[in-house]
Write a structure and sequence with these properties.
six-stranded mixed β-sheet; 2 domains; Purple Acid Phosphatase, chain A, domain 2; 386 residues; Calcineurin-like phosphoesterase domain-containing protein; 14 helices; 12 strands
Length: 386
Amino acid sequence: MTNPLFILVGIVIFLVYGGLNFYIGLRGWQALFSYVPFLSSKVYWPVFLLLAFSYLLSRFSEKFLPTMLYEGMTIVGAYWIAFMFYFLLIITLIDLLRLFDRWLHLVPLEIKQSSNPALGLTVFVLVVGIVSYGVWNASHPRINHYDLSIAKQAGSLEQLHVVMVSDIHLGTIVHNDQLTKLVNQVNGLKPDLILFAGDVFDEDIESKNKQQISDTFRMLRASYGAFAVLGNHEYIGGNADEAIKYLGEAGVKVLRDTSQEIAGSFYLIGRDDLSGARFNGTKRQDLATIMQGVNPSFPILLMDHQPSHLEEPVEQGVDLQVSGHTHNGQMFPIQFITQRIFEQDWGLLRKGDFQLIVSSGYGTWGPPIRIGNNPEIVDITITFNP
């Protein structure tokens, strides 16, 4: 039986989303498209609404549409979300200027007029430019390097070279081509250890060519292997168990509230994602329980998709935690929100002997764009100085 609260929330989201898009569409018609020859409102509005709702329509009709049509609508809708976001920001700013100018009397007459094709065209070109840059930026990942020190003996190891990647979001939008590029870049760094800090897959991994992706993962080369943890998106799609099985078959071991001693030199711990309890009803184990039997004199590395509840790894003596999830906001100015939610939403944080690295992620969720941040591969050199 469907939860009435879920239906109510869905209706509210639909109405808000529809209202915002109507606002954008109305301003677009008034300022620009009503001046386009041979374009009538009877053509404009159906096309605009189909574009605006293509992402939602694809999500609700996935089981009924041909794969090509479903994926096409998803991609078009994902791009529209980016356009919608920046159209909304700029149009709202202009309307607020008009409102406050009733008292300020500083805004030029051209901006005051809602029917102004020059202003409308300027806004349109500006947003197209922003989104185009975001698409280019999202497809050009950077390698960010960190030199860290851990004050412990690690067997005979003096250094450990770790490459960490988070938030690939393989699915309808991020394909095997991007994964192949990632694997080649990772292998080029010649790591000792490869870590995937969650959200390897997006909600749906059924529609992808699994054999292709599996073969690509098998190309990874590292002395101590490749490991992963689950993120929230593996749970959102209900594919957590399948993701574990699939990654395992592809040579990537998923750690789910477990620890593993590696080469008699250090421990690697992988935590289940916080969102798991919401989707499977099972709360993840606390870190103290997971670390029973872990020798604290050895270096302890931890993977946890979300950089939350940092008091736990601090209390339990974790030396280095790697996380993702935040995307560093992905689209400016969302990072101002992630900075308020998380103690550290990107980069390096030190708290005594505890160190945390949060990645902005390699892929994207929703709109395949990045503004105000960069996709990245995290390259870590750890020196052990007992």
